[in-house]
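Notes from hallway chat w/ T.B., transcribed later so I don't forget. T.B. wanted the structure written out for a chain they're using in a teaching module, and asked if we could keep both sequence and structure tokens in one place. Agreed to drop them here.
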Amino acid sequence: MAPNIRKSHPLLKMINNSLIDLPAPSNISAWWNFGSLLAICLTTQILTGLLLATHYTADTSLAFSSVAYTCRNVQYGWLIRNLHANGA
């Protein structure tokens, strides 16, 4: 039988031992994964919300132009706005 390349190659062996064959506690379940995903979503919403709030104007006559400014003139403003809109 041919040796498993994951366990014989030095670099792949290091990756295998640290990522693939890493023993996980028995109490981690799918709910743990959902909680981690919710934490990532919440962190993304907070960070992108703070970044968007720096350029937003709450006046009724200037609100649309401030959002348009963010999307058009701020570097990666369109990406930050879409991450915030779709991350909820």
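Follow-up for T.B.: The radius of gyration is 22 Å. Might be a good example for the class.
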